[in-house]
Amino acid sequence: MNEQPLNEILNKIKATETIKIYIPSLKADLDFKPLTLSQQRNIIDKISTTGYGLVDFFVNINDLIKLNCLSNFNSLNTIDRVNIIVSYRRQLSQQYGNIDLQKLLDKNKSIDLPDLKKTITTDRFSFEISAPSLVSDSKANSYLISTYKDEKQLLGGLMVNEICKFITKITVLDSNTEIDLTPQPSKNKWAIIENIESSHLKEVFNYINDIRNKEEEFVKFDDDKVDIGPELFIT
Amino acid sequence: MSFNFLYKPEILGKQYSVKEISFYEYKNVVKSIIETDALIVSEVFENFLKFLCPNLNNVTNLEKFLLLIKVRTLILGRNVEFVSNDVKIVYDVNNVFNFFNKKFPLFEYTFGNNNFKLSLPTTMLPKSDNIFDLVLDCIYSINDEVIQKDEKLEIINKLPALPIVDIYTKLIQYYNSVSIKIQHLDYTLTPFNDSFLSFTRSIYMYDLKNLYDLEYSLRRNLNLTSQDFNSLSLPECEIFLKNYQKEIETFNNQAAKVE
Predict the structure, then answer these.
(1) Which residue in chain A has the smallest CA separation from B114?
(2) Closest residue in B to A88 (Cα–Cα)
(3) Domain locations in chain A?
(4) Which of B210, B203, B200, B198 is CA-nearest to residue B23?
(5) A4 contacts in B (CB within 8 Å)?
(6) B-chain residue closest to A37, CA distance
(7) How many helices and strands in chain B, by DSSP H and E?
(8) Of A25, A152, A178, B248, whose CA is between 20 and 30 Å from B75?
(9) Rounded Cα–Cα distance for residues B65 and B243 (Å)
(10) What is the structure's pLDDT at A4?
(11) Count of CB atoms within 10 A of residue B232's CB?
């Protein structure tokens, strides 16, 4: 063995240039850069047992996906994210407990998605809702982490945060006033949502549950389930 | 002409050039390792090694450990005294040296298209609480290209993610035989925890009071100066003192005969 300049060594490391990951919302494969050792390390280094752990993990994963996705990042949503995470985990090892991750990924290609956009109308409001994009998910989660330092407050905050991620537009029917929430800073979104009576949000909650349940389908295989979180990348 | 004595021990089939340590330098090491914080003690020995062998590069903690044992035997001899359960035990540190001073093939792991060779940890205090850092520290070569320590951070940006737990488990299993239990002390030496560091610290410890007494005697009776202590080793200082004591004894005996 002889010592060589770093660049030559780097060239000899045989990293796969791109990997293809199935994106459920597009029903197509997209090219991604493979997960690097430093990205894996960043995920593992941020393992936390606090309530923020998983929220923080999703912020980091969204950043990582943005960095590694070679096209169409803005169109990706939280359902796609689950399949991306499982695909990256598959890169490390095909087995997760009893689950053959390749079989899980193959199975995921046949899952039908619910409507990713929907309008819900109550007697006072009309809500345009959609499965959250990774951009809006990160924005909302970052606001949550920076605003709610106290874990006890975090639980209540999580609920409002979920609604903020899903509602894109509100129309007040009495006055026919349209409020586009997408460009609003998170602080304003929260203030608007918190002023709406819960009874009007019942259907919105049902839709959120539908989407979250659909996300769960992407990690289930027979009676087993992949736990999504930073620990997934310690194998 | 300036000429510094270099000691050339052979460790794991490789020859090292080691500077001779002066009385002062040794005294400073002893003062520094009175500290019990493992991190600080490890820094002391890492810096000491840099001083002893300025060209030391890409070596494992086993090589460092063996070097430090060799240097210790030069300064204080091969025997070390331990007290265990109120019993004084004299132990020959060369037993440890001879046990570990054997070459062994490196652990190999192939993942994807890359072949990794992993050696032992490189630091006197291995990062055993973080398996990621430990595995990274142990990577010796990738596809037969030797990786230098300062290149590792850049390389992990390029390397694909790895099954770290699997590598770590197999690495520990593979090097399981590179450990020795000192029966009398019920103490196991292994490269994967702080045992090398603790053992090194204990064999380098020396009663500071004795060092000060020795320095005082030599200054008082032989007029040795600070410069002398900076160039003479501890064994040389002890020889000087012994010779002086012999001279005094001979002188006293002769004086007694005359009387």
Answers:
(1) A14
(2) B161
(3) 17-111+218-233, 117-213
(4) B210
(5) 145
(6) B161
(7) 11, 12
(8) B248
(9) 34
(10) 59
(11) 19
Chain B nearest-CA distance from A61, in A, is 14
Report the Cα A180 to chain-centroid distance in Å. 22
* Partner residues linked to B188 by β-bridges: B181
What's the rounded Cα separation, in Å, for the pair A228 and B168? Answer: 23
Chain position carrying tokens 């603790």: B198
Interatomic CA distance for residues A117 and A66, integer angstroms:
22
DSSP code at position A77: B
Per-residue pLDDT at B15 = 93
Average pLDDT on B129-135 reads 89
pLDDT, residue A111, reads 97
**Cβ-contact A125, A170 below 8 angstroms:** yes
pTM of the entire predicted model: 0.82
Ranges of beta strands (E only) in B138-200 are: 139-142, 145-146, 180-182, 187-189
Domain ranges, ordered by start, for chain B: 6-101+186-204, 107-177, 208-258
Phi–psi pair at A223, nearest 5 degrees? -95, 5
For residue B164, give every residue at least 6 positions away whose Cβ sits within 8 Å of its Cβ, in sequence order, or none: A40, A44, A234, A235, B131, B132, B135
Q: If we measure between CA atoms, which residue out of B213, B220, B185 comes closest to residue B199?
A: B185
Evaluate whether B68 touches B80 at the Cβ level (below 8 Å): no
Chain B CB contacts of A3 below 8 Å: 146, 148
Q: Please give chain A's pLDDT, 235 residues, in tens.
A: 445 566 777 776 766 678 999 999 999 999 999 999 989 989 988 887 777 788 889 999 999 999 999 988 999 999 999 999 999 999 999 999 999 999 999 999 999 999 999 999 999 999 999 999 999 999 999 999 888 877 777 777 888 999 999 999 999 999 999 999 999 999 999 999 999 999 999 999 999 999 999 999 999 999 999 999 999 998 8
Amino acid at the residue B18: V
